[in-house]
Amino acid sequence: MHIPGHVDDQPMILFWEMDEVAVGAMFFIIGYIMRELTICIVLAFIMVKLFQGWKNNQLNGVLIHMSYKFGWWRLNEVFKNGNIKEWIA
């Protein structure tokens, strides 16, 4: 059982963090739809390795932070839209 070292650590699936699994799953789904699964699985491993290298120089959970910033993910019930940069009441 993996015990996280910090509160904001990503959940783990086997030896990958959750955001790395999301990148690999995206390539798997694209390969399945295009009927080029073998090529896309190889691309998925390559892209996950590149993403791991890029992610080492970024925040923890950078994919979730980016998805909130671009408005694809909401933080909670109060802050529903991540694209709003100023709150004027």
Cα-atom radius of gyration: 16 Å
What is the average of the pLDDT values?
79
Estimated helix fraction: 40-55%
Count of alpha/pi helices:
3
The major sheet is characterized as:
2 strands, antiparallel
Helix and strand succession?
A: EEHHH
Uncertain residue segments:
none
- Strand order of the main beta sheet, please? 1-2
Structural class: mainly alpha
| Estimated share of beta-strand residues | under 5%
Report the strand count: 2
What general form does the structure show?
globular
How far the N terminus sits from the C terminus, by CA atoms, comes to 46 Å
Structure summarized in a few sentences:
The chain is built from 3 helices and 2 strands. It is mainly alpha-helical.
Walk me through what this model shows.
The protein has 89 residues and is mainly alpha-helical. The chain is 49% helix and 4% strand. It has 3 helices and 2 strands. A hairpin with a 2-residue loop joins β1 (12-13) and β2. It starts with 11 loop residues before the first strand and ends in a 20-residue tail after the last helix.
